[in-house]
Amino acid sequence: KKPNSDKVLKFDTYKCGNCSGFTMVLWSSSEHGFGRGLHSFRVLPYPLKINDSPEYLPNAVGRSWLQTQKSIESESWDAAAVMARTAMQTALKDNSAKGDRLVDQIDDLAERGILPPLMKDWAHEVRLLGNEGTHAEPDSEGVNPNDVRDASEFLDYLLEYLYRLPKVINEYRERHSQNEDSTKE
Asked: How many CB atoms lie within 10 A of CB 48?
């Protein structure tokens, strides 16, 4: 229970009807607003098979993100690194990044304050990892699977930051402006 409110973090466990594996769902109801609906939830462990991209992603970004996940599932590490880089670049362009090269696009969004310094640094790491997968040397052993998993996790945070978080904030603001309007009447 959150000490200064009625908000409580709850969890349920479920057994999969197909594989008999167990999952845990962490969830909480809304603290504010009408009807006290669902605030958020997380399923652990994350699903092993991913068939769709998150609904808040534009099609081109979602397609590249999904190909990244499918490449990780099949342990195609070089392909996953390249697709993570592609998804990131598509998202940056969709957020008005300027420049012809990815390095310039990352720096542009960072200079304009859209990407915080830590995200800028990680974006360059994903760029370099994708380059390693794209421009492999003949004696290359390929990209490190752990690096690809880290890049994919960063990509999830970046896409959450660029797409989902602004959507949630706008919904919050709309809800509060409606509440204020109804209070004035």
From this structure: 8
Q: What is the pLDDT of residue 49?
A: 67
Q: Of 15-29, 49-63, 100-114, which gets the smallest average pLDDT? A: 15-29
Token pair, residue 113, equals: 């304050």
Task: Measure the CA–CA gap between 127 and 5, rounded to whole angstroms.
Answer: 43
Instruction: Give burial (CB, 10 Å; 0-12/13-18/19+) of 155.
Output: buried
**Separation between Cα atoms, residue 129 and residue 171, nearest integer Å:** 35
What are residue 29's DSSP bridge partners? 38
pLDDT of residue 39: 67
| Tokens of residue 141, six digits | 């052993």
The CA distance from 57 to 33, in Å, is 26
Would you call the peptide bond into 145 cis, given omega within 30 degrees of 0 as the criterion? no
Closest CA to 28 of 44, 42, 8: 8
The per-residue pLDDT for range 108-163, each reduced to its tens digit, is 999 999 999 999 999 999 999 999 988 878 888 889 999 999 999 999 999 999 99
Q: What b/e readout covers 103-128, taking b as 16+ CB neighbours within 10 angstroms?
A: eebbbbbbeeebbeeebeebbeebbb
